[in-house]
Amino acid sequence: MEIFVLFIGLGVLAGVIFGEANISFFAGITENLIGLLTQFGSNGLIGFIALLLVISVFKRSTTTA
C-alpha cells in the first residue's frame, strides 16, 4: 500500500515539475486527485463521511502491514 502512495506522490511531483503533457505514465494524476477532492467537497456531510471512511480504511491497512 505504501508503494502506491509513493507513486501517487511521485506522479503529482512529476506533473508539477514537467507538466501533464510531458509525462505519459503519470498523466492525469493531479487532475484525478483534484476531481476526487471536488466530489468529496461538493457532497457536504455525505462527502465528509465518505472521506473519513477512506481515511480510516487507509490507516487500518497501514497499521496492520
Describe this structure in words.
The N and C termini lie close together (9 Å). This protein has 65 residues and is mainly alpha-helical. The radius of gyration is 14 Å and the shape is flat. The longest helix is centred in the last third of the chain and has 21 residues, at 44-64. The chain has one domain (2-20, 28-64). The chain contains three helices and no strands.
Summarize the structure.
With 65 residues, the chain is mainly α. The protein has helices at 2-18, 29-42, 44-64. The protein is built from three helices and no strands.
Instruction: Please report the distance between the alpha carbons of the first and last residues.
Output: 9 Å
Shape: flat
Structural class: mainly alpha
The average pLDDT value, as a whole number, equals: 76
Tell me the major beta sheet: none
Strand % is: under 5%
Q: How many beta strands in the DSSP annotation?
A: 0
> Rg from C-alpha positions?
14 Å
Which parts are unreliable, with pLDDT below 50 for 5 consecutive residues or more? none
- Percent range of helical residues: over 70%
Element order: H for helix, E for strand: HHH
Counting structural domains, the number is 1
So how many helices?
A: 3
